[in-house]
Design brief:
This protein has a 22-stranded antiparallel beta barrel. A 5-stranded mixed sheet has the order 3-8-9-6-7. Strands 15-40-39 form a 3-stranded antiparallel sheet, with no helix packed on it. With 754 residues, it is mostly beta strands. It has a domain of 520 residues: Beta Barrel (Maltoporin, Chain A), CATH 2.40.170. The chain has 6 helices and 41 strands.
């Protein structure tokens, strides 16, 4: 590990020397506009400045004078070219539904049509139109994604991608670890876009599963002034105020600002469970020249809620018992004890500097401090999943009382250098980087069965009486420290219509639990992709990629878990037949070893199911059919089978075989209704299995709708999801519990923009 840290330090020290080796002309180094535009990822090339005799020595001038002189020397055509080039970047805003650029798949600003892997960009406009209230709700119309896999969980966002759980990143570095609780849960209103990278991504991001990852992109300061304030009111007595303001702090645009705020007071679908939130997100950008951009983002967020997931038994949810069905709103915890609160403070730094057209360096880092409280009471369906009831009438169950308090400190950093050069007819965009992540956690916890193991207190699921439970005694857990260091290299090559992306990475991961031996893991992962651009907008590709996911601690039946390893072959195409239209498709074959699954034996531990094979196909269409009609269509097929281990031959849990969706938005200008827009969508989620091939969760179809009226600076909008209020289950597991999907929700909003 020490050797790796020395290597990282050497790389950081070598970047300035590497810059000095690049021939940077005076014209390339100087500013190129009267007002500084946003940093341009691929700036247009400029000819070298003519050589002249050295100028006589002058006295030092102020920094402001030097910047003014730089701006004055810029030719107007260069400024225009820069303005056109910044029409869209991999992290900037997108008008409408179709993004053309992304940085998630390559860590460089690259057209999506040149990235040989499946990526979907969910834009801020799409989030607003569909009325998504969480990150997972934003993914309901993305192929290959089971957005609400565990229902409307108040604890976090838990979508599944291609049958696996992804990690969640923010601005390119890890922000949420898979299935950890009391983690920062970013609000969709604070995001510019949500990018879904499907398939292994370890070559650039380290320990991630074969699912890929979600990369959330923060709203950042913009040079164009924009302000909005909005209010929401909707189902479950939801009341929210949100605001967004950005623009220049100085006339020349050297300093930009942004402030995003969210204030919410709300209940939820589950009785007695709040959904309150406060978000304060200021940010500041400094652009001393066209080639330098440094943004600092701060966030304070406090979420106060409870256990919206009741972990209800199969009987009464999946099928009725002698007492019928348990209500969807049923709260199985204790109102006086239940609490799920997460308080987050974070500061991020995003730095980028270009040395002309040949070299660019980036350094992103973030420090996060999270304090969490998780207190819950839930039914004991796990001791006997087939019959968890205490009485012959099948009404009452025993309950577990659980409490945990945590304090987490996380630091993430990613530094890389992007170098452009040519070897003969082949052009290269090479990337060399080092990333580092560390997490420290201090926690105390405790649990017991309500009333004791011998004579547990019965709880009636059909006519609950909420008597105060006895809180468990909290015991300090051993301190935890995890770290990951990764060294990676990538080359994006072009030879005429041929494009290739190759990459390799070495990871060093460590898990240190106080009082236990350190668990150290190393892994080498790679990716290779090949594309061919056909003249009519079609680009077929083939990609091979590997994944690596260490599983720490004694979370598995039998003791320590082994690291998961996976690989994927993907054959796909990207088709842009006309401006405003993208049609993407892929078939893939993924193999993962040592996959985690719920223990069919009913314990709360996991089992590692040996080798799992997931094969599937995806199709996505995003198009503006006419100036007034936008469409989003998606279909995915997944065949997920355990091929070796104790569950060989069984289907993987919580994986719908078929999913399909269609969303349309139509502006009624042709009918003379200026400012009126209507939208609607349909979502089909196919059957899934419990992990033991004993229980099947039925398929279901849901309908959504939207209507909006815009006049002057005002926007009025109403969204409804699951219009028919269809009662449905998203998942039932062999361990003994089922998860209700969310019923009909209606949300009205009014927004004023100025």
């Amino acid at each position: 590990m020490n050797a790796c840290l020395k290597t990282a330090g050497w790389l950081g020290a070598a970047l300035p020397m590497l810059a000095a080796m690049i021939d940077v002309t005076p014209a390339q180094a100087q500013s190129s506009a009267r007002e500084l535009p946003a940093v341009v990822v691929d700036q247009p090339s400029r000819p070298p400045a003519a050589r002249s005799r050295p100028a006589p020595r002058r006295q030092a001038t102020s920094a402001a004078s030097r910047r003014a002189a730089q701006r004055a020397q810029t030719p107007p055509d260069a400024a225009a070219a820069a303005a056109g080039a910044r029409a869209e970047t991999g992290t900037g805003p997108v008008r409408g539904y179709l993004a053309n650029q992304s940085g998630t798949g390559t860590k460089t600003d690259t057209p999506l049509r040149e990235t040989p892997q499946s990526i979907t960009v969910v834009t801020a406009d799409r989030i607003t139109d569909q009325g998504a209230l969480t990150v997972q709700e934003s993914l309901r119309y993305v192929p290959g994604v089971f957005a609400d896999a565990y229902g409307p969980d108040s604890r976090g966002d838990y979508p599944r991608i291609r049958g696996q759980d992804p990690n969640i990143y923010l601005d390119g570095t890890r922000v949420v670890n898979t299935w950890q609780f009391n983690e920062w849960r970013p609000d969709p209103f604070t995001l510019e876009r949500i990018e879904v990278l499907r398939g292994p991504a370890s070559v650039l991001y380290g320990d991630t599963s074969t699912a890929g990852l979600l990369n959330l992109v923060s709203k950042r300061p913009q040079p164009e002034a924009f302000n909005e304030i909005g209010v929401q009111y909707g189902s479950f007595n939801r009341k929210q105020v949100q605001m967004d303001s950005t623009g220049k702090l100085t006339k020349d645009g050297e300093w930009l600002y942004r402030f995003v705020g969210v204030f919410r007071d709300s209940n939820s679908q589950t009785d007695y469970v709040k959904d309150d939130r406060i978000v304060l997100a200021p940010s500041l950008t400094w652009r001393p020249t066209n080639n330098t951009n440094w943004t600092v983002l701060g966030t304070y967020q406090k979420d106060t809620t409870g256990s919206s997931t009741a972990f209800l038994p199969h009987e009464g949810t999946l099928f009725p018992g002698p007492n019928g069905l348990i209500p969807v709103r049923r709260f199985a915890s204790d109102p006086s004890f239940d609490k799920y609160q997460t308080e987050t403070g974070a500061i991020s730094s995003l730095f980028e500097h270009s040395f002309g057209d040949g070299l660019k360096i980036r350094h992103n880092m973030r420090y996060t401090h999270v304090e969490g409280i998780y207190r819950s009471v839930y039914p004991d369906n796990y001791s006997n999943p087939a019959d968890p009831f205490l009485d012959p009438a099948h009404r009452t169950v025993a309950r577990w009382v659980s409490s945990r308090q945590t304090t987490k400190d996380a630091f993430t950093s990613d530094s890389n250098a992007e170098l452009k050069f040519a070897t003969g007819a082949i052009t290269h965009k090479a990337l060399f980087g080092v990333d580092y992540r560390t997490l420290g956690e201090r926690a105390s916890s405790g649990s017991h069965k309500d009333g004791g193991d011998v004579t547990p207190t019965p709880f009636d699921l059909y006519a609950p009486v909420y008597n105060s439970v006895v809180p468990p005694t909290l015991t300090a857990e051993p301190d935890l420290r995890q770290s990951q260091l990764g060294l990676y290299a990538q080359d994006q090559m072009r030879l005429g219509p041929w494009l290739a992306v190759v990459g390799i990475r070495q990871d060093f991961v460590s898990n240190n639990v106080q009082g236990s031996p350190a668990e150290d893991t190393r892994a080498t992962t790679g990716r290779a992709g090949l594309m061919y651009e056909l003249p009519f907008g079609l680009t077929p590709y083939v990609t091979y990629a590997q994944s690596f996911t260490p599983i720490f601690g004694s979370a598995c039946v039998g003791g320590i878990c082994k690291a998961q390893q996976g690989e994927m072959v993907e054959l796909g195409f990207k088709y842009n037949p006309m401006p405003g239209t993208a049609i993407n498709g892929a078939i893939f074959d993924t193999i993962e070893k040592n996959r985690l699954a719920s223990d069919p034996g009913g314990t709360l531990f996991s089992v590692q199911t040996g080798k799992v094979r997931i094969r599937g196909a995806e199709l996505e269409v995003i198009t503006r059919v006419t100036p007034d009609l936008d469409l989003i269509g998606a279909y995915s097929y997944l065949n997920a089978i355990v091929e070796s281990g104790d569950n060989a031959g069984k289907r993987v849990e919580t994986v719908p075989e078929h999913q399909a969706s269609l969303w349309a938005k139509y502006r009624l200008t042709a009918l003379g209704l200026q400012g009126v827009t209507v939208g609607g969508g349909v979502r089909y989620i196919g059957v899934s299995w419990d992990g033991a091939d004993k229980l099947q969760t039925p398929d279901y179809t849901l309908f959504d709708a939207m209507i909006r009226y815009e006049t002057g600076p005002w926007r009025f909008q109403v969204n409804a999801s699951n219009i028919a209020d269809k009662r449905h289950l998203t998942t039932c597991l062999a361990r003994g519990d089922c998860f209700y999907g969310i019923g009909r929700t209606v949300l009205g909003s009014a927004t004023y923009r100025f």
